[in-house]
Amino acid sequence: MTVSYTLKVANSRFGGFSKLLFRWKGSIYKLLYKEFIVFAVLYAVLSLVYRRLLTEEQKRLYTKVAQYCNRSTDLIPISFVLGFYVTLIVNRWWAQYTSIPLPDQLMCVISSNVHGKDERGRILRRTLIRYANLSAVLILRSISTRVLKRFPTIDHVVEAGFMTQDERKKFESLHSDFNKYWIPCVWFTNLAAQARRDGRIRDDVALRLLMDELNLYRAKCSMLFHYDWISIPLVYTQVVTIAVYSFFAFCLIGRQFLEPLEPGQEGDLDMYVPLSTLLQFFFYAGWLKVAEQIINPFGEDDDDFETNKLIDRNLQVSLLSVDDMYQNLPPTVKDKYWNESTAQPPYTTATAAETLKPSFLGSTFDRRMCEDAEQSQLAEASPSVPRIQTPLLSRFFAAASPAISIKNFSRGSRAHPHLRRPRTDGGFPSPYPNRSEDPESVARIEEEETEDEESRASESTTPGGHLAGTQPLEASETRRKELPLIRVKLPSSESIGADQLEVWEP
Fold it and tell me: Which of 200, 202, 277, 358 could be stapled to 255 by a disulfide with Cβ–Cβ 3.0 to 4.6 Å?
């Protein structure tokens, strides 16, 4: 039975966790006491042999061996190897628990989408959910020793009501070398399709929802099968086990009390009971035993999963949901807070103090801002030049030389006149000398200007080679004047090479 102590740790209080240290069932003492006794006995035997049976020369040799063994313990990365191994095992243990198939979602979909209060509708709903439970029993029977002891043969499954005799004949007539837990799921799909044809499932959307829930249920059964099939690599388990046992084999010799080799040399404190070594064994060996216990949680250890109880619960709840609760609704009435704008459930005397606590409205809700009134005034945008988003590539190019753009840099004489002629001081003449400059629009080149140039180039000649009329040119000039003119300023005249200046000249 799973050991649950959740209620004992609901509130943190003085000595709360200390009380858990005296529990036996599911404790580390029950799991480790045999190994601990063996280690303590071996340590005591070696200590007596060293103290009583060895000669002086033999003690000198033993001292050298013990010092070597004590130094060797530092070469075994037991904390790293064991810590990573236990983390992997715990994550796998929790993933196996979340993979246990529960019919709760599936039974709700069956109850709401498989219709009919007659006997046929009732049989359909109960059979569908029974097939789902049968699939879970078959997979748990193949991975859990507790379930296998409960249902050792298919006859026991039939006797328990998960399978009928006709279904057993169909099940055994299908020959396969692999686990056949999936067969009830296929029966489920065929029966659901038949219910759709009969009108018990009224639309394809409901059938699709039913199939999706069944596939999720079957996927969890499949994951349990694969977790049982694919174990933690054996080499890793062997490495961790050898590392732990070899570490404490060195500790048996290296942690013994040693007499000084030279006369008059100060020796270590003679501790008849090696408390620190015993605690180290308790921690590391206990860590390994925890991993050994939960590496397969479908066994019969104290903290293994209660698979038989899960089977009982799932069958009872699912049948109750699709049968007795189908269209069995309480009357729909106005709730208690029908005429109240804000619902406030009552508190008992024990919880009345919680009503005095303010509701959480956000971490910055009560923060006081600067008392200066000017800091709270709204800031107006700059009226000179509208804010325009600059293309990303032009921003990077403007960082190196804010005076030109990529397009105008390569066009040479085709660039606009106000961007061609640099001043002698390194800047460019601005058609609006009184207008303030917007830093964000310095490096921006309008895409409309490029389109205007291309349109003027195409409109300047007719198909016969003659010049177009003056009316399109005038419209183009008017449109060009309406475009915002940009004043671009160079960092210095030296930052632009002579060859670039030649390109800008008309």
Answer: 277
User: Packing angle between helix 275-294 and helix 28-48, nearest 10 degrees?
Assistant: 140
3-state secondary structure of 366: coil
- The rounded average pLDDT for each run of 10 residues, N- to C-terminus, in the chain (506 residues) is 80 81 88 93 92 88 91 90 94 96 96 94 96 97 95 96 96 93 97 96 96 97 96 94 94 87 69 88 93 92 92 96 92 93 90 86 77 73 57 50 44 44 46 48 51 57 44 49 51 46 41
End-to-end CA distance of the chain: 92
Please state, in angstroms and rounded to a whole number, the distance separating the CA atoms of residues 169 and 395.
76
* Stated length of the chain: 506
Transcribe 386-435 into DSSP letters.
Answer: ---PPPHHHHHHHHH-TT--HHHHHHGGGS-GGGT---TTS----S-TTS
Phi–psi pair at 78, nearest 5 degrees: -70, -35
The pair of three-digit structure tokens given for residue 260, joined into one six-digit string: 């000084």
List, as one string, the DSSP characters of 69-87.
HHHHGGGS-HHHHHHHHHH
What's the CA gap between 314 and 461, in Å, rounded? Answer: 84
Dist. CA 381–CA 282, nearest whole Å: 70
Q: How far is CA 163 from the centre of its chain?
A: 38
d(CA 405, CA 395): 9
Neighbours of 467 (CB within 10 A): 10
pTM comes to: 0.69
Burial class from Cβ neighbours inside 10 Å (0-12, 13-18, 19+) for residue 427 reads middle
Nearest to 384 by CA among 442, 444, 438, 446: 438
Read off the tokens for 391.
């293309």
Rg over CA atoms, the chain = 42
- Judge contact between 284 and 247, C-beta under 8 A: yes
Q: Can you tell me the distance from the alpha carbon of 239 to that of 245, in angstroms, rounded to the nearest whole number?
A: 10
Q: In this predicted structure, what is the pLDDT of residue 392?
A: 52
Using an 8 Å Cβ cutoff, are 38 and 26 in contact? no
Q: How far apart are CA 490 and CA 496, in angstroms?
A: 8
pLDDT of residue 387: 57
Give the pLDDT confidence score for residue 11 in this predicted structure.
Answer: 82
Confidence at residue 379, expressed as pLDDT on a 0 to 100 scale: 75
HEC per residue, 14-62: CCCCHHHHHCCCCCHHHHHHHHHHHHHHHHHHHHHHHHHHCCHHHHHHH
Q: What is the pLDDT of residue 450?
A: 57
Could you give phi then psi for residue 238, rounded to 5 degrees?
-65, -40
Between CA 163 and CA 173, with CA 169 as vertex, the angle to 5 degrees is 125
Q: Give me the sign of the Cα torsion angle 196, 202, 203, 209.
A: negative
Helix (H, G, I), strand (E, B) or coil at 317: helix
